[in-house]
Amino acid sequence: MYINKNNRYEDPSEIEEFVTQNGFAILVSQVDGRPWASHIPLMLRHNAEEQPILSGHVSKANGQWKSIEGQEILAIFSGPHTYISSSWYDHENLPTWNYTAVHAYGRVRLVTGDELAQAISRLTDHYEQQSEKPVSVAGMSPGYFDSQVRGLVGFEIAVTQFQAVRKLSQNRDDVNHARIVDELEKRGDAQSVAIAEEMKTRK
Predict the structure, then answer these.
(1) 108/142 Cα distance (integer angstroms)
(2) Which of 75, 73, 65, 63 lies closest to 18, judged by CA?
(3) Domains and CATH numbers, the chain
């Protein structure tokens, strides 16, 4: 993706934390010569060689899996984003949009059997951490779990490149940067507040 040099970041730990916190991704590949996208959760871990690995699964009814193995694919992770009104500046300018995102490129390997079961278990445990009464794959009856897994296809993406962007009005002077933060906080919706916090943290 295009990233202005002022908005790019490359720290691996920051990128991986972003992916972990914004794990509901868009998985893009080619199906019959056309782009195909699925909206799915992806879980980040590292293999024995410390290469980043994204694991996920799709329904067998989703035709994307049939041609995905061996392809170079794109996984898009989106963070907070919001409209920036140029009425907030002390000079004439166009409105814009502030946002955060990570793109991951890699090669796909399909997984089945115990590998798939373990991946689903890890994903479930991760997202159940905040539940009052967390469920787990281990607590499900084997017959039920096995019947559900038969309808899924798992995969792993060996990540070859991350591209990360934080477009947070880095090109504005201190006065206008502070005005944007104030206006976002006054607007008060979750996306605006999240971007305001990012702007204060990343200035």
Answers:
(1) 28
(2) 75
(3) 12-172 (2.30.110.10)
Does this model's pTM top 0.90? My answer is yes
Q: What is the pLDDT of residues 13-72, one digit of tens each?
A: 999 999 999 999 999 999 999 999 999 999 999 999 999 999 999 999 999 999 999 899
What does the alpha-carbon distance between residue 47 and residue 39 come to, in Å, rounded to a whole number?
24
Run of H or E residues at 19: helix 12-21
**Main-chain dihedrals φ then ψ at residue 162, nearest 5 degrees:** -110, 140
Residue 67, pLDDT score:
93
Angle at 108 between CA 77 and CA 41, to 5 degrees: 35
Which residue reads 């914004």 in tokens?
22
Residue type, 124: T
Dump pLDDT digits (tens) for 63-106.
999 999 989 999 999 999 999 999 999 999 999 999 999 999 99
Spatial strand order in the sheet of 52-59: 34-41, 24-31, 72-84, 96-111, 152-167, 52-59, 43-46
**Distance (Å, whole) CA 145 – CA 128:** 17
